[in-house]
């Protein structure tokens, strides 16, 4: 009876379950169960896996881009350091200016104002007579090289190049320009003693009065020279926070080697992207590891611009904007804001919220009260800022608005010390468009370094340029 009952139980089991062999393994059973799941469930899992793979691939790609940019920055910085250390021994080692295609940026456009006498020629701004009309081909090579080097913030190399040219005294008709460019470098760099010494030699050589020293024209004033008490070197970011901020980051890296306090200004940043956030994040972390004291100007405004591109639950190509926002909250010691952001970050990326760690080094937050009025129109003339770098889109909009109200549009460049090489190209394109619309633009009181750069770019074919009064 028991035997028949046993056989009957086996028969019932065989009818209710799939037939298996004694050699069936646990893996085979699991595989069979997996295959028996609804197709829709398996497709959902496969879709999620594919989505995660895509996010990981995009994140890795962005990280590789940031690594590549930083690697290029490091190589350029190492080259610059080597050039600075050997520049006194060999004057031929002058940066990478041979790689710059100067002719590619020259625009051959007929001079539009040659037969027109501007009403500004009798104004207070115009004290130099006729505007420049020298073509690029007539410009001495040392002038072009020094102008490009200075535009790219390689001031020390540009200074040495001009010093060597003055000492060689083989400049022909370009002697006055080269001497004036060197005086401008001393003025902008705050080197008053060198400026005064060269002024005496200038008076003897040209039998004319040299330009006078003006503290207001120095980016680094005499009270802020390296090593003086209260010195706070500053680096300003503007336009879009993206891969184009490498120039500013290189300057930050250079200043961090010789200073204990740095000021970073973010008030002129208009927008951000993931690569720019990643580059700035790494720089801020390095500066804190070095123990530098930081002054952050407009950091709260930058945080708002980063917040504007984030959305809780949406995984973008990388988490760097989130991480930079968290870093800024921590650096500003904003614990509540940090905790709120960390929760949103953890929800979005399904990770544990990062802990709040207060800053170890001294970090001061400031708001720039002068940025909104930097390009104000004073005395009827629009004034350009001290430095033009990054994307000058906002500046071009202001120039266009001003040109629509006043013709010719007389722009005061007396405060303008330097124009970044890349920004100069974009400025040229914008002014070319205004010129094609019949707008007459005039730059007055331009220093000789900027004039030389404008000649390299072909700017004198689009606008009238008046040198700074000696």
Tags for this entry?
470 residues, alpha/beta, Transcription Regulator spoIIAA, 3 domains, 5-stranded mixed β-sheet, 4-stranded parallel β-sheet, 15 helices, 11 strands, disordered N terminus, STAS domain-containing protein, STAS_dom
Mean pLDDT: 75
Number of domains: 3
The CATH C-level name of the largest domain is Alpha Beta
Query: Which consecutive residue ranges, at least 5 long each, have pLDDT under 50?
Result: 1-55, 76-129, 132-138, 221-230, 369-374
Based on CA atoms alone, the radius of gyration comes out at 31 Å
Euclidean distance between termini CA atoms: 124 Å
Series of H and E elements = HHHHHHHEHEHEHHHEEEEHEEHEHE
Count the E strands.
11
Region (Disordered): 9-58
Protein name: STAS domain-containing protein
Organism: Glaciimonas soli
Domain STAS: 235-311
Q: How would you describe what is shown here?
A:
Helices cover 49% and strands 11% of the residues. With 470 residues, the protein is an alpha/beta fold. The chain has 3 domains: 67-110 and 136-217; 223-366, 2-Layer Sandwich (Transcription Regulator spoIIAA), CATH 3.30.750; 371-467, STAS domain (Transcription Regulator spoIIAA, 2-Layer Sandwich), CATH 3.30.750. It has a 5-stranded mixed beta sheet with strand order 5-6-8-10-11. Helix 5 (155-168) packs antiparallel against helix 6.
């Amino acid at each position: 009876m028991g035997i028949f009952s046993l056989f009957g139980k086996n028969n019932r089991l065989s009818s209710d379950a799939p037939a298996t062999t004694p050699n069936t393994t646990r893996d085979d059973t699991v595989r069979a169960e997996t295959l028996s799941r609804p197709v829709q469930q398996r497709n959902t899992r496969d879709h999620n896996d594919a989505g995660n793979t895509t996010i990981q691939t995009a994140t890795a790609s962005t990280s590789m881009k940031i690594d590549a940019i930083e690697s290029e920055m490091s190589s350029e910085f190492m080259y610059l350091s080597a050039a600075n250390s050997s520049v006194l021994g060999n004057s031929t080692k002058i940066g990478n200016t041979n790689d710059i295609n100067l002719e590619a940026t020259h625009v051959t456009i007929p001079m539009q104002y040659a037969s027109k006498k501007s009403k500004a020629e009798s104004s207070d701004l115009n004290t130099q007579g006729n505007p420049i009309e020298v073509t690029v081909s007539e410009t001495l090579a040392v002038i072009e090289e020094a102008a490009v080097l200075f535009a790219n913030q390689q001031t020390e190399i540009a200074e040495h190049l001009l010093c060597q040219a003055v000492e060689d005294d083989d400049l022909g008709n370009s002697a006055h320009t080269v001497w004036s460019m060197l005086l401008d470098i001393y003025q902008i760099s705050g080197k008053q003693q060198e400026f005064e010494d060269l002024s005496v030699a200038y008076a003897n050589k040209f039998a004319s009065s040299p330009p006078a020293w003006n503290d207001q024209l120095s980016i680094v004033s005499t009270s802020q020279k390296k090593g003086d008490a209260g010195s706070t070197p500053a680096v300003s970011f503007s336009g879009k926070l993206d891969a184009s901020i490498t120039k500013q980051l290189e300057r930050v890296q250079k200043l961090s080697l010789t200073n204990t306090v740095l000021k970073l200004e973010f008030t002129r940043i208009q927008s951000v992207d993931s690569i720019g956030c990643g580059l700035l994040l790494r720089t801020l972390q390095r500066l804190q590891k070095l123990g530098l004291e930081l002054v952050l100007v407009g950091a709260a405004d930058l945080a708002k611009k980063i917040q504007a591109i984030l959305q809780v639950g949406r995984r973008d190509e990388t988490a760097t904007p989130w991480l930079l926002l968290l870093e800024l909250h921590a650096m500003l010691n904003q614990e509540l804001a940090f905790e709120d952001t960390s929760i949103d970050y953890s929800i979005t990326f399904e990770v544990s919220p990062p802990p709040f760690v207060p800053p170890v080094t001294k970090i001061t937050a400031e708001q720039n009260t002068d940025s909104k009025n930097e390009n104000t129109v004073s005395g009827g003339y629009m004034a350009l800022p001290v430095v033009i770098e990054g994307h000058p889109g906002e500046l071009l909009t202001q120039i266009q608005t001003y040109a629509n109200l006043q013709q010719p549009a007389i722009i005061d460049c007396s405060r303008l010390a330097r124009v970044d090489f890349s920004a100069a190209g974009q400025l040229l394109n914008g002014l070319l468009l205004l010129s094609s619309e019949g707008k007459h633009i005039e730059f007055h009181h331009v220093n000789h370094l900027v004039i030389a750069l404008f000649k390299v770019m072909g700017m004198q074919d689009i606008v009238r340029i008046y040198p700074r009064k000696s």
